[in-house]
Every structure is written in structure tokens, then in C-alpha cells.
Amino acid sequence: MREKVFLSLILGINFLILLLQVKGLSIGFHEAKILYGEPSPLQLLISSSLHFFGQNDYALRVPMISLHLLSALLLYGISKHYVSRTGDRLWIILIYVLLPGVTSAALVVDNAGLLIASLFLFGYLYLNYGRYALGLVPFLIGIDPAFAYLFFAIAMYGVYRKEYVYIGVGLISLSISLYFYGIHIGGLPESRFLDVLGVYTAIFSPIVFLYLFYVLYRRMIAKEWDLIWMISMSAFLISLLLSFRQKVEVQTFAPFLLLALPLAAQTFLHTYRIRLREFRRRYRILFYSAFFLLIVNALAVFFNHYFYHFIKNPTHHFSYSMHVAKELSNQLHRNDIHCIDADNEKLQLRLRFYGITHCENYRLDSEKVKGAKKVTISYINTPIYRAYVTKVNK
């Protein structure tokens, strides 16, 4: 009972914090493309939410927050197979919800959130029901092309364990996925290896990523190759190999490394507890340093508007692409303007979500023209966007 109370408290506070962040975000261009682009499972989920709860930012983002909370619960279930103490599992969840990449996936409409939840569901089913988890594979094929890395790992695990069911399901699923989605491997050798490592570091925070890498390597040397390790290690190695020839979308591979968090916790706690109390100090320092950095990263995300005070060019702000559109549309509506030529494809699509359609009656310009009305968007009393609205006389 006490365990459920603390888990509910962690996820409840996390839910409220994420919900408070929604007000300060506008729909991004990538999100608008998902919503108004080609049909997909994620589009269906978001469109259903908008249909039932109205066209607003909360209906847009609550499905992603819900997927995030589901992922945390599934990770908690996965952790039971690697750490026995309740307190240890709660620490895993706390660290998980504080990871920078996880926070982004919980708020931004992107396939990453759906990918994480689906992947964790597979891991949970596998650890509790064994090969029956393979029944989920046909559904995963239609969710995201990135699951090809999962199917590859399943096949490799089957080869390692001489389990022909895993080999067959893995190879067949991989073939179907590649047939429908293909895979891009190309470009000239240019080595983006360090770039990939840098993005991984940003997603996980430096200490957590380095320790995950250490645990994956250590288990490889010790030949502790269960399916969860195989999934994480396969995706990680593929991303590093691809980085030698092309730009790698790290956010596609990062969810597979998240699955290794319980493995990392198991290794850390075992290493920590087998030592006498006087020899545990450096491990405590490592843990508290990692936790401190996670808190700092979380605060930077939650109070990101304040950074505009210290940035000369607002467009250099890491969240600028998720700002402005909502406030701009509100000002246009207040001036009884419900359609405009934004002269910017990305901004035009974003404004569509807030009820500002495209027309030639009004024009939005970045430079002042005669008769134009100035529009200024400010965050924390700091101007971050200026434009001019002109009525076009025909």
C-alpha cells in the first residue's frame, strides 16, 4: 500500500507539473505536420482527443502526457524483475521522469512518446509472459519504422539462444517493416559520431548516459545477454555505426536505451551494496551528482521562458520553435482577423491550429510597411517576436 502511495505521488506531481507547462507552449511545425499530414496512429490519437475535448493545447498534449504516465507504470513493472526493493524501483521512476528527453517526449507531439510506451509494453509482456509477447509484434509494425531495430534484436536474441520462434518472428517482422518503410543508408563518410554522443548526452544527461553505456558494455563482456539488453545494445550500436556515414536521428534510437534503465539500476545497486559502508562514498557522490544535474535540467525546461532575458537573439532559444504562434493568433483574433498570409509555410500551418486560416486579405510582414499595425509578443516582459499586419486593399 505504501509503495502505491509513493508511486502515485511521484506520477501525480509529475502530471501536474507537465500540465502547467502546456499553457506556455504553442503547437510546433513538426507537430502541425503530424496533425494535418499523412494518417498515422499518433495522428488518430491526437485527432480523437481534439474531437472529444475541443481544439485547444490541453487536448493536443494530454494524450502525450498520458502515454508518458503509462510508460512510467510499465517501467515500474519491468523494474520488478531487476531490483527487489520497493524504494529502488521508486528511484528508477523518479530518475526516469526527470530525464530531459523523457520530459520532451511527454509534452511534444511526436512518435517518440508512442514509441516509448509501445516498447515498454513489449518489455513488460516479455518479462511477465515470455514468448507470448511476440503477439504484440504485428501491431508494432504499423506504429513506427523504428521498431525495425526491435525486430532485429529479437532475431539476434533468437540466434544467441537458439530459439527459432524468436528468429522467425524477428526476421519476418524486420522484412515486412523494411518492405513498407525502407531504410535510408547513404551519404559520404563524414563521421557524425561525436554529434550522436552529444545528443545522447543531452537526452539522458551526461552522467546517466555514461553509466548506461558502461552497463551495456559490462554486460556484453560478462555475456549477460537477455532480450532487454539485446534490444538496447542493438539500437545503440546501429546508431553509432550509421553515424560514420550520415546524420542520425538520435531521438529514434534513444527510447531503446531507456529500456536499459532497470539494468543500470541493478548493476549500480549491486556494486554499491556489496561494498562496506566506508567504501561507498564515491558511489553516493556519483548518484547525487547525476540526480542534481537531472533537477537542474528539469528546472531549465520548466522555467525556460526566463532564458529570454539573457539571449540577445530570441530565435536561439532552445524552445523558440514551440513559442509565439498561440500568442500571435490571440492578438489577431482580438483584432477581428481570422485569416492572414503569413508568408511563412511553417508559421502558417501552426496558426491553422488556432483558427487562423490562409487568405489574401491580410499580410504578415517582418519589416514595417506603410499603414501596417505592429504586433509584439513578449515573455516575462521581454520582446521575442515583432511583426506587422497589413490590410490588403483589392
UniProtKB/TrEMBL annotation:
It comes from the Bacteria. The chain crosses the membrane at residues 58-78, 90-109, 129-152, 164-185, 197-215, 227-246, 252-273, 285-308. Keywords: Membrane, Transmembrane, Transmembrane helix. This is Integral membrane protein.
